[in-house]
Amino acid sequence: MRTLLRLAPLAIVVFAALGCSTSQDVVVNPSSVGHSFHSAYLVAHGDKSSDVDAAIQRELFRRGITVAAGPEGKQPETSEAIVKYNDDWGWDMAMYLKTLDLQIYDAKSGSLLASAGWKNSAMHGFHGLTTVVSDLITGVLNKLGMR
User: Residue 105's CB: how many other CB atoms inside 10 A?
Assistant: First the structure.
């Protein structure tokens, strides 16, 4: 019984640490490694997720990529990549990001170049959108060999 009582605080710490961790995964089409682009078109969600639209545009622009945004299928012919995303938010006394999935397609062929996903933990934290977007885009560009 004493052993169990001594291990209880450790079990709580381990459970809390595992419950608060996030996960991130970046997958690149092997044939896309070395594929670079200098212009992208973001399929914007508008009012529903305008803050996510802006964060992705800012991060790509910060990386020297020219960005245009608008509805799906309206990309300029000069766009080299199309960026799409899905976001899911929750409420717990404040809004928090639950998941963010990002896909980057070749604008000419339509083939998927890379996909990245971020998922908050079951015990969720209030992670900054800018940091999550930066980490995902950094992971994608690194695996494509662009940075």
Answer: 19
Q: How far apart are CA 106 and CA 13, in angstroms?
A: 45
pLDDT score at 53: 95
CA distances from 117 to 22, 33, 111, 140 (A): 11, 18, 18, 10
**Rounded to whole angstroms, what are the CA distances from 74 to 36, 59, 61?**
22, 21, 20
Q: What's the predicted TM-score (pTM) here?
A: 0.80
Instruction: State the Cα–Cα distance between residues 119 and 88, nearest whole angstrom.
Output: 10
Could you report the average pLDDT of every consecutive run of 10 residues in the chain (147 residues)?
52 43 80 89 87 95 95 90 93 84 95 94 71 94 88
Contact assessment for residue 87 and residue 99, using Cβ atoms and an 8 Å cutoff:
yes
Crossing angle for the helix pair 50-62 and 129-144, to the nearest 10 degrees: 40
Cα 87 from chain centroid (whole Å): 9
CA distance 122 to 131: 19
